[in-house]
């Protein structure tokens, strides 16, 4: 299999043209910088890698590094059976599956559903709560059919239902309400067509409960109910005084987009009583966002909504359900903290907080305990899918050889740059470090001399070979300065020297699109755990920024989940020749599957659905492989169709044949080649997509 190799690093502004040049061309320009000397194997362990990539913080006991130095998953509830992700990747390669590929560990979905329900059952039993928990899965988090079916199947013993937020989601969810008593909570703005379908579901005995998001929906609901002759059952989303926190802070509180205020709620209840419909209101709901970072905020909101519930119950409104919304959080790598990407509680503490808070208020007010409902989508789906992306090449700054010395006839500017480098590297350093003032002066001199070299080249006074020498000397000087700055308190280091970290980091070009696969990272700065899938028993020897295939400078991962103080780069190992190199992007299951953008017309990636099975040789089997979006499918989304494109291309080629530019046979071959692209994946593929391992290694070897 022919594979692209490294090319010189491009500055951020140069990423609008990301070509993959020929291997021989790359060999002639690749940086001559040698890698660091090998370290003893016992100098770095898998425990060090687990700490570096914060696996324990985000892995939720599912993910770990095995003895082979590979990232692995334990998907089954209370079972030690594990699946080596590198084995799955090698298996997919042998089957000819291209990358990027999303691996779904379907058993993880089942395990998360069971753990959630058992946590509430335990809290109810231990607290003496006198009612039950009934969860619903909000399909907006991941509407993919197999995901929804897995969640419902795992939740069947617990009566788990669904939540929808749009007309299309309602149409998808309603037929899946096969279990009597399972809830279908309907959030979002609802038009008359949607309300008729909801009430039709109630007519056939299904527990379909529309939640009014705005006061204006009240009259519309009652009007449709009168038209159909139905006595409706519904809930309301209450606009609490308690606000959320973090990225989703405005989902609750006075500034939230949805919700009915307390004055509006009282007006609504008065209207129900006047029409003898007080029993129509059966559910109270609030929502603080899909990720609540602080358990105290949750407790405060639950107590507030329960107080409203208790007082309405005393005023003759026979409420049955208390829906605490979504918000059960996921640790994306920061551990137990109040930062945006972390939470400060466990799953069991979340369940305890909800149950005990509701019980405390109800007991104080002397009212019956309601059925507790939650809409935990992120916590159910996030862990089950891993995006595997392939490294296509690395970019780094060209450095000068250690034994370089300028020729006697070298340009003065080149010789002066060499003198600056010698000054930084040379003797006279105190305790191995030069004073910051000297380093700053050396940096300023290097910048000045590089600018001189650029000016001389532009005016035609400097040969291109010497311009290349000047650039290598400049970057070597920057690297030598940065090495001496490391370890000094950041506050003491001038900003321009701190910025060298960004300039000297490697770029790893990977076969994926940020905008398609991790849109939340680009749009709201959500961090996702990323790490190599193998060689995790080695000490990382490069600092990398991961960039994608799109022709956009934003097409990169800008911050990382890691133990380093500086989150702007990831420590990784260096690629080895032509051996495949893969990164795993974790916690992809919530929202990212659905929210992808079509930047550059990169489509959905291929999928592999994996189940753990102790009877199989490697402890798993691949139940299904789904191809990624084809070029033809993506073009159809923006109204380009094969027949029209074929006609246009055929006319263009015919014109060239008539003008003698190409021969007829060549024209026919070109048209066939063009039309053959329609069935291909939208992502980069090696020249030979057969799946053979170009490294010649045994795929099962560590």
Furnish the topology, listing elements before pairings.
Blueprint: H1 23-29, H2 46-52, H3 55-59, E1 63-65, E2 71-73, E3 83-84, H4 85-94, E4 101-105, H5 106-127, E5 136-138, H6 145-155, E6 161-164, H7 167-173, E7 183-186, H8 192-203, E8 207-212, H9 217-228, E9 234-237, H10 262-274, E10 281-285, H11 295-314, E11 321-323, H12 347-365, E12 371-373, H13 378-381, E13 385-395, H14 412-425, H15 436-458, H16 464-485, H17 495-498, H18 500-504, E14 506-510, H19 514-517, H20 519-524, E15 530-532, E16 542-547, E17 570-572, E18 582-585, H21 592-595, E19 606-612, E20 620-626, H22 631-637, H23 642-658, H24 664-676
Parallel strand pairs: 4-19, 5-6, 6-7, 7-8, 8-9, 9-10, 10-11, 11-12, 14-16
Antiparallel strand pairs: 1-2, 2-3, 4-13, 13-14, 13-18, 15-18, 16-17, 19-20
Helix pairs in contact: 5-6, 5-12, 8-9, 11-12, 14-15, 14-16, 15-16, 23-24
Explain the overall architecture.
There is one protein chain. 38% of the residues lie in helices and 13% in strands. It is of the alpha/beta class. The two termini are 21 Å apart. Among the domains are: 275 residues, Alanine racemase (TIM Barrel, Alpha-Beta Barrel); 47 residues. Strand 8, helix 9 and strand 9 form a beta-alpha-beta unit.
| Proportion of residues in helical segments | 25-40%
Question: What would you call the structural class?
Answer: alpha/beta
Number of strands: 20
Looking at CATH, which topology of the domain at 107-381 would you report? TIM Barrel
Beta-strand percent range: 5-15%
Under the CATH scheme, which class of the domain at 107-381?
A: Alpha Beta
Largest sheet, in brief, is:
9 strands, mixed
CATH architecture of the domain at 107-381: Alpha-Beta Barrel
pLDDT averaged over residues: 85
User: Span between N and C termini?
Assistant: 21 Å
Low-confidence stretches: 1-41, 689-702
- Corresponding CATH superfamily of the domain at 107-381: Alanine racemase
Radius of gyration: 30 Å
Overall, the morphology is globular
